[in-house]
Amino acid sequence: MLLSRLAQSVLPASFRAAASSVSPVPHAARFAVPARMPSHVAQYSSGTAAPVPPNFAAGDRNGSSTSDRVYTNYYVYKTRAAMCVRLLPPTFSKSQAGKVLERDGTMLLEFATANAAAAGAGNGPAGNVNRTYNWSSKVTFALSPVELGNILAGDAVASDKGLVLWHDPAKLGKTGEPIKKLSLKQLPDGNISFNLNAGADNINVPVTKGEFEVIKSVAHFAIPRLLGFGEVFGSS
């Protein structure tokens, strides 16, 4: 207070009059925050978890917390159909000695046909933002580590017949499901045709050479991990 009085006595009269005309700012107003926080900020500020991708709505097959899982897919979009590539990890059972491999992991291929374009929307290029795919009626094919090895060995381009893989769901106890046939064949332009036939469903996705290299690179990385070898060092 003493310093304030001294300052007022030293300042010219014009400055003192201007200062006295300014109303003090309430303490609360100086630190006020917006009344409404943006929705995307409020969602995560409140501790709400990010939405889980629909493909992974089921529980974790390994029994670990879903917050520890990482979800990533690789998509190939074409005019008439699309293909999604994702990895399903191996499953383990617990014993007194530790974890024992129970089932190998797989590379799951999911095929979906393109929905009909809306009237007046035009056909548009593959992957167009206006194009949608019928993922609710997708057809799947799970590639084993050995089948991935066949792809990496070049069986898809080694002959005119390409690589043909058969899956009979009945052998896995899945009665009533059709036998699935996946054919990989090199086209005259160098692209690779991924054709899946399952009963009445016949879906074809032509994959470019670059896209095929990406799939092979993922397969190289995945094979030892699908066999459980990643856990040998990860759990030590």
UniProtKB/TrEMBL annotation:
Q: Which UniProt keywords apply?
A: Transit peptide
- Transit peptide keyword on record: yes
Pfam families according to UniProt: Whirly
Does the keyword Protein transport feature in the UniProt annotation?
Answer: no
Q: Name one GO biological process term.
A: regulation of DNA-templated transcription
Q: Gene3D superfamilies of this UniProt entry?
A: Transcriptional Coactivator Pc4, Chain A
Q: Which family does it belong to?
A: Belongs to the Whirly family.
Query: By what name is this protein known?
Result: Uncharacterized protein
Q: Which organism is it from?
A: Chlamydomonas schloesseri
